[in-house]
Structure formats: C-alpha cells, structure tokens
Sequence to fold (203 residues):
Amino acid sequence: MNLTLKRSLFISLLTLIALLLHGCGYNTFQTTDEQVKADWAEVLNQYQRRADLIPNLVATVQGYATQEKEVLTQITEARSRVGSMQATPELINDPEAFKKYIAAQNELKGSLSRLMVVSENYPALKSDQNFRDLSAQLEGTENRITVARNRYIKAVQEYNLSVRTFPNNLTAMIFGYKAKPNFTVENEAVIAKPPTVQFNNPK
Fold:
C-alpha cells in the first residue's frame, strides 16, 4: 500500500469519525455543556453580589434595631453557611451538593425577607438613605438572580434532553456525560419572588 493511499484512507477515516461524532450529538454536548457552565457562573456571580451587600445591610439595620438580634444573627449565620460551601463549576455535576447549596441560598433569602419585614417597624431606618440605597441594590440583585437562574434552567433542560434522547444517549454513555441537577419545583416556590424592599415614604 503506497503512501498516497494510506493518507487517503486516514483522511477518509477521520472524516467518517467526525461525521459519526456530529451525528450522534458529540458536538451538541460540547456546546450545551459550555453554555450550562457559563450560565451557572453567572448565577454564582449574582449570588456573590447579594452576599456582598449583606454586611453593610446588617450593620445599617443594627444601628436602628439593636433589639432585633435574632433576625440579624440568622442572616449573618445563613450568609456564613453559604460562604463556607465550595461553589465551584463542578457543583453542577453533583446533585447532592447542588441541592445543599441551593437550600443554603434559599435559607439566606428567607433571612433577608424576614429582615425586610422587621425594617417596617422602624420608620427612622426606612428613611435612612444608606438603607434605602442598599435595599434598592438588593432588589436589583434579586432580579438579576432571577434572570440568571432562568437562563441556567433553560440551558440545563437543553443539555439534559440531549443526554436522555436517542441516539445522543449512547454518546453520553460512551463519553460519560450525565444529566445535570436543576432547580426543583420546591426551589422555585421559595425563590420565585425577591424580598420585599419597596418602602412607603416615611411620614
């Protein structure tokens, strides 16, 4: 077999492999997996943005509502628990770790909501400009979290559909692609609405 024939056969073999990989969804997995990672990174970015607002928010509330120690402690501890978790890109490949992380984020959000309810009892706090600015930033961040989370949900749905449907599921088994965890109905019930941070003008 001469060299030219060998090269032709090699090129033909590579072309065939490329066509087979394309037809069985390999390229789709590459694209959708990268999209899921990018969308998850944005969710984490917005979660971090929220966490960064909390110390100043707590300090401001504490200046007017020192007797609300329990609520302030709860939100501080919830933030600490979230911060102690390793929110790496690999988290989306571990359903149990993902579930625990989202539960901790939901707990933090619940604590924030309670803090906002408490603030309604302190007119001086509600009229504090720093508190109003922080509250507006928090509301904007919660909206960004909602947008980022929805994008992640859609990206995971597309990826998981590829993993579970024929013939792509065969490729998934060969290359080790597995379905990724997503937000559950329970998650959505908790995080569907941002904390209430709109205030009436103080009298």
